[in-house]
Amino acid sequence: MGKRANPMAIKAALTYEINEAAAALGKSPATIRNWIKDGLPVMASRKPYLLSGADIREYLRAKHKDAKSSLAADELYCLSCRAGRKPIGMVVQAFPNTPKTTRLMGVCDCCNANAARMISKSKVDDFAQTFEIKASGHSDA
Ligand SMILES: [Zn+2]
């Protein structure tokens, strides 16, 4: 493992192409692509992919956190609690992220903030045993 990328090197209000994010963080574009496979959200309606600075920051923070504690099978990650939380009613919405990953979003049962979890698309059926997964409406926004 190399040095940790510093989330503060990224401006939350900007969007980045993969090469730009890599340059800002002192990482290789391949590393950024690995993060995307790992669940870093992209604006998938566009090619080349654009990354939101805010998403990169949250991803890096969650990644650092994940090194210490991983989520239980029935938890999403609440950015507000900074911990794994169950979604209210165990209801989540599934949003396509990359071709291989899906973002599950629910409402934290502790603080009512949005909680999310990035999963591999191949695991959606597994998570459907635990959560009530509602498909998101299609959005081109
Ligand atoms: Zn919470």
Verbal overview:
With 141 residues, the protein is α+β, with helices and mostly antiparallel strands. The chain has two domains: 60 residues, Orthogonal Bundle (Arc Repressor Mutant, subunit A), CATH 1.10.10; 60 residues, no CATH class. The chain has four helices and eight strands. The model has no long low-confidence stretch (mean pLDDT 88). The site of zinc ion has 8 residues, from loops.
Notable features of this structure?
alpha+beta, globular, 8 strands, two-stranded antiparallel ribbon, binds zinc ion, 2 domains, Arc Repressor Mutant, subunit A, six-stranded mixed sheet, 4 helices
Distance between the termini: 36 Å
Count of individual helical segments = 4
Rg for CA atoms: 15 Å
CATH class of the largest domain: Mainly Alpha
Question: Got a strand count?
Answer: 8
Spell out the helices and strands N to C: EHHEHEEEEEHE
Assembly of the depicted chains:
single chain
Largest sheet: 6 strands, mixed
Structural class: alpha+beta
Q: Supply the CATH architecture of the largest domain.
A: Orthogonal Bundle
Strand order of the largest sheet: 4-3-7-6-5-8
Shape: globular
Instruction: Compute the number of structural domains.
Output: 2
Content of β-strand? 25-35%
The overall pLDDT, averaged over residues, is 88
Q: How would you sum up this structure in a few lines?
A:
The chain is of the alpha+beta class and 141 residues long.
Spell out the blueprint of helices and strands.
Layout: E1 15-17, H1 18-25, H2 29-38, E2 50-52, H3 53-66, E3 76-78, E4 83-85, E5 91-96, E6 101-107, E7 114-120, H4 124-130, E8 132-135
Parallel strand pairs: 5-8
Antiparallel strand pairs: 1-2, 3-4, 3-7, 5-6, 6-7
The structure holds zinc ion.
Zinc ion (ZN) binds at residues 78, 80-81, 85, 108, 110-111, 113.
